[in-house]
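Dissemination and training. As part of the outreach component of the grant, students in the summer workshop were shown how a complex can be specified as a set of sequence lines and then modelled as a single object. The example used during the hands-on session is reproduced here so that future cohorts can follow it. Participants entered these lines:
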Amino acid sequence: MVLEGIMTGLSTAFTFTNILMVSLGVFAGTFIGVLPGLGPISTIALMIPITYGFEPSSGLILMAGVYYGAVFGGSTSSILLNTPGEASTVATSFDGYPLAQAGKAGKALATAAYSSFSGGTIGAMFLLLAAPTLAVVSLSFQSADYFALMVMGLTAVSAFAGKGQFLKAILMTILGVMLSTVGTDDSTGIQRFTLGQLDLIDGISFLLLAMATFALSEALISALKPGETSNVAQTAVTEKFGSLKVSKQEFKEIAPSIGRSSVLGFFIGVLPGAGATIASFLAYGMEQALAKGRAKLQFGKGSLKGLAAPETANNAASTGSFVPLLTLGIPGSGTTAVMLGALISYGVQPGPRLFAERPDVFWSVIVSMYLGNIVLLILNLPLIPYIARLLAVPKPFLVPFVLFFSLIGVYLVSFNNFDIYLMVGFAACALCFRLLDFPMAPMLLGFVLGGLLEENLRRALLINDGNLSFLWTRPITLVILIITAVVLFLPLYRSLVERFRERS
Amino acid sequence: MTKDKVGALVILILSIVYGAMALNIPEAPGIEDSGVTPSSLPMALSATGIIAALLILILPADRPDSGEETSLAAAFKGLDWRCAAFLFLLMAGYGLILKPLGFLISTMLFLCGGFWTMGERRIKLMLSVSIGVTVGFWLILTQLLGIYLEPGVLHFLGAN
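and obtained this result:
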């Protein structure tokens, strides 16, 4: 069955249009992702309006390409400027930036590209095996189990948010779910929180929220911080890149790290909420712990292993995070939440039925992930010294452009001025929350899952005659809820203990 | 007051207002059987939001590992607020003029205003970049993708 699926995927992905899509996507993703401050979430959000009229599989293939491109673009700015666009490439800068400073920027970028390629490829193979299996299992899931899964997805993103961030992430998730309740209630037709505004009857558009809270607020944050990066960027980009070659000896050296980090990255990526950031840090930590003698001392000073490990892991994790998205319809991270938003806007509802009803979409996405990796390696790597020149685009031009593309991207969908005002309002709130160090990704995840959460709870209650007993009588639901409780209370308990210990 | 507590206070107020509004959601006839009314989830959300926000407010502040400053003053220090405020005004203004003035004129004005706000002063460069990008984007949208854009005042000049 897997083979048959791969064939379906290959025949869909290998059409001229779709190869063009994935190439364009990877290219555009790198292009935007390399710009300081714009991470994959913003990049994908900026691309959604362009793909509205596309076939779902073509649109999603383009998005997958954009995702890979943006992650690679982010690594490029981490290595060259030490300004990671987003958290998952922070670990890349530990050894990538020292390498660039030592005049080996070319080698560092090439190592990053080869590692990303290997991580993505191994990840795609795992995905090929894991996704169909999980999809078959999840076909037996009912509304009650889905409700439990949504609760788990929402709590997990907070549980993995990091030290001191747990309660803040919970609050932002709740805020996201609150925003999802604005508009007409689907099952009763009653309006909620519309403040009498006609424009809010259909609720808040996902694209609008994603653009305002990510693209707009990221651009505004960079406007708030005066005089950063531009000069540094100029010198970093005009300086010599050095050779893009990686020697055989060096390949041999990093190969075991790549192997280990791919497996680690993929499995962490599958966990809801964990994702690329944690995977990259864990892989870095693991390699540092395993290294001996001189190699260990090299870490943080330009070790190729230290660069290869997080790069491999974050790509493998990015691939892994597609497993829950494609099989259960539950995004495990901010980026896959944007992907889910895009899918829904194409009229495709991911989940176990996607596997059964739209095998072309399901398989072509998996195959195109592999394709995206190849395009990244053969098309982007040689061009990266030129793409990197974008880093030198002066801020006075960059910021207004990002603002313009975000605003017009949303406006072109609705042709409604009200959307622009709403975006400005959300961007202002997001800016404040960002300055206060409140994470934005859980909010987006809460918004996407909020509607599904309510719908599944309702359906489950209807099936059970309004009785909540399904929460403990259905074994699958119970198991998921127990896992959720453990995921929720462990970090809460730890955080409370730490706070009290610090006080005493 | 630390950044965490200020943020939590804001969300606490939001949760209370949200909860109060949820109380006023009308009941839907016939839905009572399922037990979930349109206001059930909002009420639960409001309650959870209030509890989580209170936890942050009541518990002792978390001390960061890196010695990073967590106070509100430190977070807001040295930021170019004037620039951000102008950009917000520009965006709102763009929404206001987009229909009456049309896409071409309003976008050029928005971009030039943005460049100026961000500290660019080379007028010729600003004009050429904004005109180039706007016209290029307009051509792609209207000619290539067939999307209708408001002509605004340029309608009288015969432009689309």
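The beta strands of chain A are 183-184, 191-192. Students were then asked to discuss how this feature might be tested experimentally.
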